[in-house]
Write a structure and sequence with these properties.
This protein has 2 domains: 1-34; 79-244 and 281-375, Rossmann fold (3-Layer(aba) Sandwich), CATH 3.40.50.1820. The N and C termini lie far apart (111 Å). The chain is globular. It has helices at residues 2-10, 16-26, 44-51, 56-62, 77-95, 150-158, 176-180, 187-193, 195-199, 217-226, 245-252, 254-261, 274-279, 306-319, 358-375, and strands at 100-107, 114-121, 131-137, 162-166, 205-215, 235-239, 293-298, 324-329, 347-348, 353-354. The strands form 2 sheets. Strands 1-2-4-3-5-6-7-8 form an 8-stranded mixed β-sheet, with helices on both faces. It has a two-stranded antiparallel sheet with strand order 9-10. It has 383 residues and is α/β, with parallel strands linked by helices. The longest helix is centred in the first third of the chain and has 19 residues, at 77-95. The chain contains 15 helices and 10 strands.
Length: 383
């Protein structure tokens, strides 16, 4: 009896049938194996989830296609072409007597594609290697070099720079084929760096004084360009840059994800293409930086949210403090019309003059000082 009690306490979770069998064995009786237990049934919570009716509206809202045919379904490409023609005409008009403005084309180093570009130069050129030059990169998943950048590029030319602004694949205003060739973080980076090959055809450009600068997606391309083993740039600046696609696509949700998952060379989301999204996220390549880099971000940015840009700022400050110069602007231009993402690109669109705020002036003062220190645009090295 004492042994039976001991067994009862030793196996409190045994079935009643198993205890009877053990007791019989202890008394020397013929033991019969306990009946096999039935396999566990689906937990009620699992069963209820499996049987829950689908919410078609929610399913539709969360659905993200990976079919390139869905990337720009129903898009009005001609409207973009018309808007681009109008912008180009205004650039030409505003540049008269101010700077030498041209639209040029060069060949990308990858794929079978010509890349349009804006070229801005001083009216009077110096001799061979007389000018520093910069590649300026526009933003937008699908965007283009817009007229609102006029006063800033004018400032650059007046300081002695030659500036080229690539309309890399995916840019708008050049028709359906160019639009649908978008390759965020892929071939578009090669398209942009290929602008340097065009600059090599200009004898007055000093190839030892090349810089790069971009805003938002353009800042992302700038980071992707200088976070590589080899590139031609001596200094770079990334303004409110996209930095981490793994985080960004999760944070922004399906409406933003659809712009990526349907790109021909992506076709999927980060959980499906982990290595690709890591490869195309500058945050994970900070250690490759070898040239001076300036980064400005804003805490009230609602496009590239500060929680994303804070990651690159922290990484640069901790791992590249000797090369990276960063500044966080706290709520620049605050108020109900907050423009954190464009805080240093404020322009009066009627006059095409800068609409300066204290933070915009500060950002550009730091930017010009940074590039003048590293590129020396005021030096005429042709002499």
């Amino acid at each position: 009896m004492g042994r039976r009690l001991q067994l009862w306490h030793a196996a409190p979770v045994a079935t009643f049938a198993a205890l009877i069998w053990l007791a019989a064995a202890a008394a020397g009786q013929q033991a019969q194996a306990p009946p096999a237990q039935s396999p566990p049934t689906t937990a009620p919570s699992d069963r209820s989830r499996a049987e829950a009716p689908m919410d078609p509206a929610r399913a539709r809202a969360l659905y993200v296609s990976n079919d390139p045919a869905d990337h720009a379904r129903g898009y009005n490409f001609q409207a973009d072409v018309d808007q681009k023609a109008a912008a180009d005409a205004r650039y030409a008009q505003a540049s008269k007597g101010v700077m030498d403005f041209q639209k040029v084309t060069y060949r990308s180093s990858v794929g079978d594609m010509d890349i349009p570009a804006y070229l801005f130069q001083p009216l009077k050129k110096r001799g061979p290697k007389g000018h520093a030059a910069m590649v300026w990169v526009h933003g937008g998943v699908h965007g283009n070099w817009s007229i609102n950048m006029f006063p800033f590029v004018k400032d650059a030319v007046e300081r002695g720079y030659v500036v080229i602004c690539p309309e890399y694949r995916g840019s708008t205003g050049y028709g359906e084929k160019h639009h649908l060739a978008i390759d965020y973080g892929g071939y578009e980076v090669e398209d942009t760096i290929s602008a340097v090959e065009y600059l090599k055809t200009l004898p007055h450009v000093d190839q030892d004084r090349l810089g790069m600068m971009g805003w938002s997606h353009g800042g992302y391309i700038t980071l992707m360009s200088v976070f590589r083993d080899a590139h031609p740039f001596k200094a770079a600046s990334a303004m409110v840059p996209v930095t981490n696609l793994v985080f960004r696509l999760s944070y922004k949700g399906p409406s933003y994800q659809r712009q990526f998952a349907t790109q021909p060379r992506i076709q999927g989301l980060p959980f499906e293409k982990r290595d690709l999204y890591i490869e195309r996220s500058p945050l994970y390549h900070v250690d490759k930086l070898k040239v001076p880099l300036l980064v400005h971000v804003a805490t009230n940015d609602t496009d590239v949210n500060f929680v994303e840009d804070q990651q690159i700022v922290d990484a640069l400050r901790s791992r590249k403090p000797d090369l990276a110069e960063t500044k966080i602007y706290v709520d620049p231009v605050p108020g109900p019309t907050s423009v954190g993402h464009t805080f240093n690109r404020r322009v009066n669109m009627k006059t095409l003059e800068r609409d300066d705020s204290p933070d915009q002036r500060d950002s550009w003062n730091r930017t010009w000082t940074f590039f003048e220190w590293h590129l020396r645009p005021y030096e005429d090295r042709s002499r």
